[in-house]
Amino acid sequence: MAFLSAKQLKDIENAVAAAEKKTCGEIVPMIARSSAGYSAARACLIITGFIVCSLVYIYKASLWGAQPVKVSELIIWQALSMALGGVLSNIPFLRRIYVSQKRMTAEAQRAAKTAFFHLGLTETAGRTGILIFISLFEKRAVIIADKGINQNVTPGYWQQQVSGIVKGIKTGKTAEAIIDAIAQIGDKLAEKFPPLTENINELPNHVRVQA
């Protein structure tokens, strides 16, 4: 799944800047290609290719006249099948077949929590950092707010925004969904977290991209 274009990334950055003019909250959007490597899923695709190609070769060799299986040819077929499985394992929708929905949700949440601390969202003056984390492979979104925000915003509100972003990912409107969520979050924060007299931008507005 491709990342967003340079224009889309800039549009999201501008949306963050506009939202933060209304509030002292610090919104940080982050987009990751994947939250985990899922090496087991890759291995399963390689093994599946190996088994299928081996069976096809054996069936082909014995289909007419019970021809004997040539070990050298079988080894070549198996080597090619493993190489093909390795290529196929890089295709997201095939790899997702071997990863449970529960696992993908857990990995996205884990990656979001790690990013929340690594990006310094716990270090703002009023503890008003908000991470909007999007993981494209899993088609998951996670929103984490620091304690300065969370004590005045219900968890149900964040889930509402997450649902909107996930819908956008699945319909090919990822950028639009992120921008819409940022705008709504800005309006929500403006109600109880208005901008300070000196509304310093503590965290950069650009989208963090993780390849």
Compact description:
The protein is built from 8 helices and 4 strands.
Write structural notes for this entry.
With 211 residues, this protein is α/β, with parallel strands linked by helices. 57% of the residues lie in helices and 11% in strands. The chain has 2 domains: 6-36 and 100-210, Diaminopimelate Epimerase, Chain A, domain 1; 39-96, no CATH class. α1 (6-20) packs parallel to α8, α2 packs antiparallel against α3 and α7 packs antiparallel against α8 (174-192). The model has no long low-confidence stretch (mean pLDDT 88).
Keywords:
single chain, 211 residues, alpha/beta, Diaminopimelate Epimerase, Chain A, domain 1, 2 domains, four-stranded mixed sheet, 8 helices, 57% helix, elongated
Calculate the terminal CA-CA distance, rounded to whole Å. 11 Å
**What would the average pLDDT be, to the nearest integer?**
88
Give the class-level CATH name of the largest domain: Alpha Beta
CATH topology of the largest domain: Diaminopimelate Epimerase, Chain A, domain 1
Query: Biggest β-sheet, characterized?
Result: 4 strands, mixed
Shape: elongated
Q: Strand portion, in percent? A: 5-15%
Sequence of secondary-structure elements = HEHHHHEEHHHE
Q: CATH architecture of the largest domain, please?
A: Roll
Number of strands: 4
Topology (elements, then pairings):
Layout: H1 6-20, E1 26-32, H2 39-63, H3 71-88, H4 92-96, H5 101-118, E2 129-135, E3 140-145, H6 147-150, H7 155-170, H8 174-192, E4 208-210
Helix pairs in contact: 1-8, 2-3, 7-8
